[in-house]
Specification:
2 domains; 3-stranded mixed beta sheet; Aspartate Aminotransferase, domain 1; alpha+beta; Aspartate Aminotransferase, domain 2; 8 strands; 204 residues; 3-stranded antiparallel beta sheet
């Protein structure tokens, strides 16, 4: 996404920008690492990400006070007392030293992983170049993505279900991934913001 307009709105209305950078480790926006453009950024190290610790993630910020508070909450909000004492609700969100060590080791191959993902993207882009109804998600001049997923855009009347059926016919496993949050049963009674009156672009 073009983040500059979002940053301008945040500045105008004094709204902190918190980046959900879950899948974007290794990506850059206008030369700056994604996840570092707002007050806080959150990365995921789930098993399907570009590097993994099998679970967990990482919170980053230049605001030491916010990081200290996050660490406090993540370690059960335990007060510095000899006995267990809690004045706030805390959580056990600590990553074990073993998993953290795995993550540090995988950071060494991050650039290699990004290069491999880019190769896959370019392969698909070339393979689909002669198919008028399928295009790859474009890369903007100001972007340096990590190519974690190679996404396609469908034109005209071609629908995702058509792609799934064609792949299944050749015994290629394929499935829908994410359902828009506003379509999840839990959120069915909540409002959502859209450019359209009756539906969301996420449903297309």
């Amino acid at each position: 996404a073009d983040l500059d307009p979002i940053l301008e709105i945040c500045e105008e209305f004094n709204v902190p920008l918190i980046e959900d950078a879950a899948e974007s480790l290794g990506s850059f926006y206008k030369g700056k690492a994604t996840g570092t453009l707002g007050e806080l950024g959150a990365y995921s190290f789930n098993g399907n990400k570009i590097i993994t610790t099998s679970g967990g993630g990482m919170l980053v910020s230049n605001d030491q006070e916010k990081i200290s508070k996050a660490k406090f909450w993540a370690t059960q909000a335990r007060e510095p007392a000899k006995h267990y004492e809690h004045k706030e609700l805390g959580y056990n969100y600590r990553l074990s030293n073993i998993l953290a060590g795995i993550g540090r080791g995988q950071l060494k191959v991050l650039e290699e992983r990004v290069a491999q993902k880019k190769h896959i993207y370019e392969y698909y882009k070339k393979a689909f170049s002669d198919i008028e109804h399928i295009t790859m998600m474009p890369v903007q001049d100001y972007d340096q993505p990590n190519y974690w997923l190679s996404c396609i855009q469908l034109r005209d009347k071609l629908k995702p279900i058509d792609i799934l059926k064609a792949l299944h016919a050749h015994n290629i496993d394929a499935r829908p991934i994410w359902k828009p949050m506003h379509l999840q049963p839990y959120y069915k009674d909540f409002d959502f913001v859209t450019l359209r009156k009756q539906s969301s672009v996420a449903e297309d």
